[in-house]
Amino acid sequence: MPAQTRRRRWLTICAITASAGLVAIPASAAPGRHTSPFGARMLAQLAAERGHSVGVIHPAAKSEDGNDGNEADEIAEGADQYAEARTSPGIVAPGAYGAAWRGLTKLPRTGGSWRHSTGLPYNSDDSRYRDIDSNSSGGSGNVTGRMAAMAADDDGYVYAGSAGGGVWRSRNGGGHWQPISDRLPSQSTGALALDSTGRLWLGTGEANTNADAYLGSGVFLLSDPHHGAFSTRTRVGGDELESTTVRQLRFGGGKVWAATSEGVWSHSTKKLSGSWKLEFAPNPDYLPGGSKAADDAAAYKNITNDIAIDPRDPSKVILAVGWRSGDDYNGFYTKVGGSWQRISSGFGDLPTDADNVGTVTFARSGDGSRYYAIDQSPEQMATNPDSGLKGIYSAVSPFGPWTKIADYKQLAADGSALTTAGYMPGVQAWYNQFLTVDPADPRHVYAGLEEVYETKDGGATWSTVGPYWNFPFSCWSIDPARQTGSCSQTTHSDQHGVAIGGYHGKSYVYVGNDGGAYRRPVDGAQDASGHATDWTSLNDGTIDTLQYYSVGIGKDPDHGGVSVTGGLQDNGQSVLRSNDKVMGSNFGGDGGDTLTDPANGCNLAEEYVYLAVQVTQNCAVNDGSWTTDPGKATSYNVAPADNATSEARFIAPLAADMKNGSTWIAGGRHIWVQTHGYAIRSGSEWKSVYDLGAGRTATAVAASGGKVYAAWCGPCNNQGFARGIAVGNADGTGWHDITLPAGGTDGTVPNRYLSGFAIDPKNADHVFLAVNGFSRHWTEGPGAGVGHVFESTDGGTTWKGISANLPDVPTNSAVVTANGGLALATDLGVVYRAPGRTKWQRVGSLPAVAVLQLKLSPDGGTLYAATHGRGIYTIRVRDCD
């Protein structure tokens, strides 16, 4: 079905208490389709469009990813699907993750400790990997996982708040980082702010409303941020802000104001005990405890974005309120006669109507003489495929009148890399926004959307100082002897956080984005195109917030040891050879599932999204010569047909037969099998062995000795959620659906998302099933059932629950160890059941981070954990027993 028919007009959200609950975003929030140069496959097309290129496009680069290159649609659809696994078939009640975290911390622990495998620089421009599906030479340099917020002081201390890996501190202007929030039950950052006394405030719960944003556990304060770390004892107020996201923290009149997903709240900055005060919620009936709290729409009925406080009179406050896809309550509010009233006029160019007020960010100059605002328009986002940005505005007072100083067309003309119709500045303004003013100059402003923009004259002129990437520019070259031709380094794309601070007497601007943290001097240099020439990546390898979906391990064919690879959120696929001091990126875009040949780690397959699979047999090592000679490409697009018809999930399941690595299984609407292993060169080599049925898509696949297990859902959301298991043979024979009781009674497989199989290597009829979501106590939908782990000894015909003492926590994957133990990856760490035992133990002491996949080393002696926010970790299996 076409991409547009996948859009949904509803939202699913996991409301939680005291930990990392997931925010889900409806696909209807995405702008229209476009043909943006997103993902690795587009590099050849870009090369062809440049006059200095010979214009040769390899056939692999022409294959579509099933979504017409639409990154904005992909983010929104991925959000739906990532959340469906945890929320369907119903709404999850507050307290679920908090209870799970408390339960996990009380489990007995195994022996051994985790070893950090990816704690070294990750170079997205590594010149070794410039094959057709790589983004290397784009100019982002060293990267790590998404940074949602930044803060900095004038003493060289910088604080980076990551999406899923906690808060990090640098004492030397950026670099040599250390984590300072590992003891918190939520590692998701929404806001960071230094107050006038130098204290660091942390609002947990990322508010970027994307695929893998998690709710938080409140606001925390570090009185001496140069030392120490956050702990649960440093929480401000009570539990009022648990289960929310915090987009901004602002200060004024002795109070800290928090713009959250459940209204605007305030608290004294002097007396930290006592409850938060709810200042304003546009629809209070939808708040917890309200008459409509259980409504499917509750999660987006009280979203607030920012607060502007007049420093001359802190009693004068403007609230920016609204869901970025549009709602009747969207608008600006101020207090009149003791009650909050919508502002309907007097704002000048800045819209006040609900259709044109979406995600909003304010900024104020240091002297209070000027205010700035970014506004994303729900109406424009729904009707204009080029951009959802209504504009950037300035005023001398937060009460206006506001004057428009930029729109997307102006920004596109000022050195942007996004000049193609359908993908222009602000196309993801609902996801990418920051705004700050130079403390020393009220007319010097930095704005972040997909790119970084700068004005030094209050908005009369703009420069794209941090372009999306360097591919469209004449200075670009794929030459492996240079990072990006004669272009200067840029930042990674998709901007979220910004701060200005000092180090050794020099002022710097710090930006946080989907690739980590970057800085440049505030008085930095630009080239003739307005691009900055002095960006520095701060992702030096001491900070690892990489968000892995998958991990693969194989013997390194050239250096001994093993090669480790994994698929990442917006950072492609990383590859770490056994002798590497720096990781490289051999595939671009989003990296999903991955397959790696245990006998040769350079034989690997990487999934982009929707089963867009690429394969290489040399780790995708290439010097870029494919641009002039297509025959020199060493990676190939081998997507099954469900990719072209969009009948596969955003992160679709991919597996190799445990007994025959040349037999691969892929799942979309159909179960696909190919038997050429890493020698496959075309998507036509896949054979459909079973049709799950219209509207159904595979959520997990596994095979051993030709026996195949496939789990599916359809519908996959809470509007009639259904799930099932099909079993058959790789040769296409014997396929049938397993009869699963619909009620999900105790001891039977519940009606929730089936996320992974683990087959006993000694017996293909002995299989374990991992189940995501929460059990019936927390999930209100029909058939939610009880339990997260189930076992079958008759090839999937019957199942029994073996969750035992396992806390009620979403479970993502499982693996059977050689000695018969069973390891589980959960949203809050890893647990293990030793052979012959029935009870579960917690493996090591990872922070409260989601582990999405587990794999064993080729010799079976080491367990690898792909975390979604803290990189890849390993532990010896024998230490767990």
Describe the 3D structure.
The chain is mainly beta and 881 residues long. The protein is 6% helix and 32% strand. The chain has seven helices and 58 strands. A hairpin with a 4-residue loop joins strand 57 (862-867) and strand 58. The two termini are 48 Å apart.
- Poorly predicted sequence stretches spanning 5 or more consecutive residues: 1-70
Radius of gyration: 25 Å
Sheet/helix structural class: mainly beta
Give the tally of β-strands. Answer: 58
Helix content: under 10%
Count of individual helical segments: 7
Q: Tell me, rounded to a whole number, the average pLDDT.
A: 89
Q: How much β-strand is present in the residues?
A: 25-35%
Instruction: Please outline the major beta sheet.
Output: 5 strands, mixed
The quaternary state of the protein chains shown equals single chain
How far apart, in Å, are the first and last alpha carbons? Answer: 48 Å
Shape: globular
